[in-house]
Amino acid sequence: MALVTGANKGIGRGIAGRLAALGLTVLVGARDTARGEEAAAALRAAGGDAHALALDVTDPATVEAAAARIRERFGRLDVLVNNAGVTGSGRVSPDRAHDQVPSTVDLAMVRSVFETNVFGVITVTNTMLPLLRRSPAPRVVNVSSHGASLTLNADPDGPLVALPPSAAYSPSKTALNAVTVHYANELRKDGFLVNAAAPGYVATDGNDHSGFLTVEQGAEVPVRLATLGADGPTGGFFGAEGPVPW
User: Fold this and answer.
1) Which is the most buried residue in 62, 64, 95, 176, by most CB within 10 A?
2) What is the count of structural domains for the chain?
3) Which residues fall within 8 angstroms of residue 149, CB to CB, at 6 or more apart?
């Protein structure tokens, strides 16, 4: 039983599809109920067991209601993929996200990005923890980004050098990584494996489809972390290439 937030499109939908293909029952978390139902129906048509779940990570009431539905219908949760996220810049490629330059950034935009990408993850994770504790092998995956890496960002000759500065999206993912580590430390003794995933530069609405990876390719790392065996890592940050530097 897996819940994927923001699963009606993009990387989230790719993750939901891969998990369903592996035989998991998948809950398609979506703010827009109609789009969630459409995505779940498509997964069922492909042979998966999928159900739409109304959930806005920035609205605690909808998160509580979603947890109540899971508890009543399924009894537990084995996998939580915190995928829902926003860039703050709208549908533009990262090299055009000039509104994120720190010296001129709109603070309201920064707050809105953190509200979804960090506070929303904490809200959903804490609300779903009682259901995850009922699983014999609970897994939590937080969808991050290579842009979260302070090491990569600080390297003037590194792979991110061509991108403009970011005062909202990238720092929000850095904060998400920090939160991931602390959840992993707290929950390790209870058998949880909690990791952050960097899907790569995937073509999505968030970057105006400028990415060079498909959503199916972007789903590979999150799905691998969502289905780790008992000897798998926890408190890590991983991309397709392996561990990503903090």
Assistant:
1) 176
2) 1
3) 160, 174, 198, 237, 244, 245, 246
